[in-house]
Write a structure and sequence with these properties.
mainly beta, 661 residues, 8-stranded mixed sheet
């Protein structure tokens, strides 16, 4: 790294974005971090010191967001240790009349914001920042929370020419290192050295009857020595990441490294463990009054309520359905985050409101009361990022669902989600690895988006009417999750509102009317939409261009970026079928039709089929689009982009009708 922080020359303004990010709004020229442990001599403790130095070039006005920075400081949950920001420096450099002019950040321009009781944010904006500026900052964070070795992110919104992180970890501290991302390390080394922490231990001789004088104070030097691992991680020319279509969260894909403390053991001392195994976590959860105790007790207070809810249900499946439907329709979900219950199940029942975890824990309690085997499953939703399969990093779990075993069949339930069907889960739950909480362990279970299939069918009939015009009828059976989305939208709108987007999507020469919508309240079933159509232009124009797919056209390629640096994450696999049966308009002949075609995506991962047939009186068209998996690796991106480019082009083709003269 040939950067001297604090010294900016005229030549430094010549830095250009890398070719992979030629349109970047800002460039991180260099980002350097260092973590090391230091002795607190007076109180015989060890702190962590984190230093960061960063230089950024603002390329254009759209990159001015980089001139606002936030520093996060943490307080321990016990309140006995915290982060302290020290020696912060920040400057803006501009080139004026061939000279470098520096504008320093005043300390009065640094503001504090309490995100919550455990997090404080220091915010500042660089003064005099503008298009073409170079901004540079450095700071030190001294932390008494030595369990929290600072993570490092090599990648973000802007391209980074040089990102380096150094960490010196004494042998007394044992960490698990977790790295992710798709960028290679330029440097990934570790060397070894010795380390010595020197303390001054203050002792007092107590007052006794034999020695009635004032206590004597003495100071004794104490040293702790050992080996130290000095890590160095460097990435060069790291591309910026932008949110592209079909992305769960960029946090799954940015290049970063983080650490989880497992143990601290000083010389001649008993080790202190900080990471449990899955069995230990299960034991703690089952003993918690906010989790296991709520569902493992008898909960006999539910008996009378369940008699009323279950009624004369004969089978276990019917009982489970009635209990699930009652909770879904009568308990209002309130904002909550996590897998533990803030209140008791009695309070949830009484107030008819609860968090996702509370509602689903209540569902388990009610199912067990009816002798239906059920267990909680904890997971991280798609927007939060993946959970770790190897280590119980519990901060990554934010959602709880239910596993019920009914007549030897496993059914997954979420009664906290309004308008969802029995045996269905919100799409946000399909995030891969999750854990089932039994009394003995946390067992792995997986919810992959690839396992969800969205199936939709559209039938369109167009015929000549008695008045010489062209009329039609369309029946569109939506996929289940498209139906769920529409149900949620209509819950806050007038039912009439669903007509507008359909009319907007239709070509200008098509009028839609007589709308019907079925199964809005049948939450287990997909919605079916029906409407009639009338076609203008026929009988008047000599040539009529007609798109046979009507509103069911993919107009733009969702994969428009030239390249993508992380996987494509669709919410489900899908199969879409569109069928058209059309009478040739009276007074017209078919001058041109699209050619039939069939295209495979990576042999068996998808298929697009477009079949057109015609005779003297009719045109028949069948279009089928299949995507057989939800997740595609980034190396498959170009193939997927080309596949959709072909579809967009094909679906834009028109049937040409020519008037008979």
């Amino acid at each position: 790294m040939n950067i001297k922080f604090g010294k900016v020359t005229e030549q430094d303004f010549d830095v250009k974005p890398p070719s992979t990010d030629s349109a970047a709004n800002a460039i991180i020229v260099a980002d350097w971090g260092n973590s090391e442990f230091v002795a607190n001599s007076n109180d015989v403790s060890i702190s962590m010191e984190f230093t960061r130095k960063t230089r950024i070039k603002i390329v254009n006005k759209n990159g001015l967001n980089a001139a606002t920075h936030s520093i996060y400081l943490f307080n321990s949950f016990t309140g006995n240790a915290s982060d302290r920001l020290e020696s912060i420096k920040a400057s803006t450099y501009n080139l004026e009349d061939g000279k470098v002019v520096e504008t320093k950040l005043e300390s009065s321009s640094i503001f504090s914001e309490n995100a919550n009781k455990n997090v404080t944010i220091k915010k500042f904006t660089f003064p005099a920042a503008k298009e073409g500026s170079i901004i540079e900052y450095s700071y030190i964070i001294r932390s008494g929370i030595n369990t929290n070795l600072r993570p490092w992110t090599f990648q973000g919104e802007y391209p980074c020419l040089w990102s380096e992180y150094n960490a010196s970890i004494p042998e007394f501290f044992k960490y698990v290192t977790l790295a992710q991302g798709y960028q290679p390390f330029l440097i990934n080394t570790v060397d070894h050295s010795s380390v010595n922490f020197a303390f001054t231990l203050k002792t007092q001789t107590p007052v006794t009857s034999a020695m009635p004088t004032a206590p004597a104070t003495s100071f004794q030097p104490v040293n702790i020595s050992g080996s130290c691992d000095n890590h160095r991680w460097v990435m060069k020319n790291v591309p910026g990441l932008k949110v592209e279509p079909f992305t769960t969260t960029l946090m799954n894909h940015i290049a970063k490294i983080e650490f989880q403390l497992t143990m601290i053991q000083y010389p001649h001392a008993v080790p202190t463990f900080y990471m449990n195994d899955w069995k230990k976590v299960a034991e703690q959860m089952n003993q918690s009054e906010k989790f296991g105790e709520l569902i493992n007790r008898s909960n006999g207070w539910l008996d009378d309520n369940l008699k009323e809810i279950v009624g004369d249900a004969g089978s276990q499946l019917e009982k489970a359905r009635k209990i699930f439907q009652y909770l879904r329709d009568n308990i209002t979900k309130k904002t909550g985050f996590g897998v533990y219950a803030p209140t008791t199940l009695k309070e949830v029942w009484k107030n008819k409101t609860g968090t996702e975890a509370e509602i689903n824990l209540l569902l388990i309690a009610m199912l067990r009361n009816e002798k239906i085997e059920s267990f909680p499953i904890i997971l991280g939703t798609r927007n939060l990022g993946f959970t770790n399969e190897l280590y119980p990093l519990m901060g990554r779990y934010n959602y709880l669902i239910v596993k019920a075993v009914i007549d030897d069949q496993v059914v997954y339930l979420d009664a906290s989600h309004p308008r969802i069907g029995f045996g269905k889960l919100p799409l946000e739950c399909y995030n891969g690895h999750a854990r089932e909480v039994t009394k003995e362990n946390l067992l792995p279970v997986y919810f992959y988006a690839d396992s969800v299939k969205e199936y939709s069918v559209t039938n369109n009939f167009i015929m000549n009417d008695e008045k010489g015009g062209l009329v039609g009828s369309t029946t569109h059976r939506m996929g289940y999750y498209s139906s769920l989305t529409l149900r949620n939208e209509l819950a806050n709108k007038n039912v009439e509102d669903y007509k507008k987007p359909i009319r907007t999507a239709l070509p200008e020469n098509v009028e839609a009317f007589n709308f019907e919508i079925d199964s809005i309240k049948s939450y287990e079933d997909p919605i079916t939409i029906r409407y009639d159509t009338k076609y203008k232009g026929f009988g008047e124009d000599d040539i009529v261009y007609f798109n046979p797919l009507m509103e069911h056209v993919i107009k733009t390629n969702p994969f428009s970026a030239a390249q993508r640096f992380y996987p494509v994450e669709m919410p489900y696999s899908k199969e879409e079928i569109y069928v058209l049966n059309m009478e040739i308009p009276k007074g017209y002949i078919v001058d041109e039709t699209p050619k039939s075609t069939r295209l495979l995506l990576n042999e068996d991962e998808g298929m697009f089929e477009y079949i057109v047939k015609k005779d003297a009186l009719n045109i028949q068209l069948r279009m089928k689009l299949m995507i057989n998996k939800a997740n595609f690796k980034n190396e498959d991106y170009e193939t997927l982009r080309d596949f959709y480019s072909f579809i967009v082009k094909k679906q834009a083709e028109q049937i040409v009708f020519k008037k008979i003269k």
